[in-house]
Amino acid sequence: MADKQCKRGGRDRGFTLIELIVVMAIVALLTSIVAPRYFNSLAKSRETALRSSLAVMRDAIDQFAADKGRYPESLEELATARYIREIPEDPLTGSREAWVTLTPPPDAQATGQVFDVRSGAAGRASDGRLFADW
């Protein structure tokens, strides 16, 4: 009788290979459902951060031009003149040097080199537009 309890007790303690495979399959299925949503939310948050950074820098450029009567010569000048605390990092490229500055149109009354700023990131946003066109 003690022999039967020993065998029975030893068998109940572990998992079978089939049980482990079923659990792994369920975990893989749940991961395959959750992972794309997670990566899409990361991409959308980067796009939102880019829109915010562009709006802040464009507002600072406009304020600089209104105060000084000219556009800044560089983004560094905006930071030096304290219109922005520092040049933000482009959330798509991860670099502060990736910003693309646009010069004023030829018929503009004000001088300077930075009329507008855009992201230097290649690729398209979730809405299909190029990041370089924002």
UniProtKB/TrEMBL annotation:
TM spans (from-to): 20-39
PROSITE patterns per record: PROKAR_NTER_METHYL
Matches recorded under InterPro entries: Bac_GSPG_pilin, N_methyl_site, Pilin-like
Annotated GO biological process: protein secretion by the type II secretion system
Keyword Transcription in record: no
SUPFAM superfamilies: Pili subunits
Keyword terms, alphabetized: Membrane, Methylation, Transmembrane, Transmembrane helix
NCBIfam families referenced in this protein's UniProt entry, alphabetically: IV_pilin_GFxxxE
Pfam family, one: N_methyl
GO cellular component: type II protein secretion system complex
Domain of life: Bacteria
Protein name, UniProt field: General secretion pathway protein G
